[in-house]
Amino acid sequence: MKNKWFTIIPAMAVVVSILAFSADLSFAKDKKRVFIVHSYGEGHICGQPQHDGILKAFEESGWGVGRDFDLAAYYMATKKINNTPELIAEQGRIALEKIAQFKPDVVLVLDDNAFHTVGLPLAGTSTAIVFSGLNVQPEDYNRMKPFMKNRLHPGGNITGVYEKLHICNAIKVLASVHEIKKFLVLDDLSPTGKAIAKQVALELNADQGRDPLPCEIEQATIHSWEEYREMIANINNSDEIGAFYLGALLLKDSSGNSHTAAEIIPYTIKHANKPAMGPNYAFIKLGLFGGLSVDFYAMGKQAGMKVVQILAGADPGSLSIDDAKKVALVFNLTRAEKLSIDIPSDILLAADEVFRK
Asked: For the chain, what is the total number of helices (H) and then of strands (E)?
């Protein structure tokens, strides 16, 4: 029986094929096996860069897919399609069934929904778990089900990379190219939205006593698609709000329809007259103004290197849980021109990427 979200990834494949999964798939017994669980759908702007970074880590370490290990992926599609608690839980159950059949040596879980429904249930088992892109604090998950002693020495079968937002530095960079009296952080009621709100608060509190931020910070939780549209109008009419952070990425309208980043970002570009940053630089490529953002590709590669260590014999409990190390300085010049913002040449020259869209 075919499942459109399950993929066996062949060696040297540029575009993977969607194949049927069955318990009788045969794999060489001397090969390792790695299974990737995405919270996202296939090709998602948050999941795909992490996936590509993971594959790059394997490639640079000399581990060939199909030659040295077999690789499979399951896409839970919990952002657009399966985005109710019941559907997310069901997708986790399906993923766990696929994992039991595939019998991997390492399971990679990308984003919180995959970790919550797949990674945590496997805590304490003989299967190594590596996560990438968590927004919820690992300590909060540890209270749900103990899986680590601490981040430096997890001590169990789970390790990974936490998605630190670096929000304070991001605000400082944006304020260096555009005058900001008040910076507005938007989040939503989804698990990721709530986690982003807590991340921002923690990072702002941790930064107190260091270099002061150049502007006032305000957070707002968006409850619906209609409220988001109203918020954009309010931002446009505000003399104080100079920029905002788009952390509201799953909103339902009055009819119950879901609106995700694929719709929220184009609406923002069309209607907002203030610059916005997003959780990762793929959003800038899609048209947001930019600044300093998490590099999802580098985060995936960082997690992939932990998998390589485990495949080579390392104990996952001995590998520290790390923050995502690399942030990217990225700007969208088309958006900057539309907003009449002149980015200084020295900052542009320091940028990792500059887009025009």
From this structure: 12, 16
The distance in angstroms from the start CA to the end CA of the chain is 41
Compute the CA torsion angle 104, 109, 110, 112 (nearest 10 deg): 160
Region of residue 125 (left: phi > 0; alpha: psi -120 to 50; beta: else): beta
Contact yes or no for 281/354 (Cβ under 8 A): no
pLDDT tens-digit series, residues 216-247: 999 999 999 999 999 999 999 999 999 999 99
* Full DSSP string of 33-44: EEEEEESSPTT-
List the beta strands (DSSP E) in the chain: 6-9, 32-38, 69-75, 106-110, 128-134, 158-162, 182-188, 216-222, 241-247, 250-252, 258-260, 276-277, 290-294, 322-323, 327-332, 353-355
pLDDT digits (tens, 9 = 90+) for 207-216: 666 678 899 9
Counting every residue written for the chain, the total comes to 357
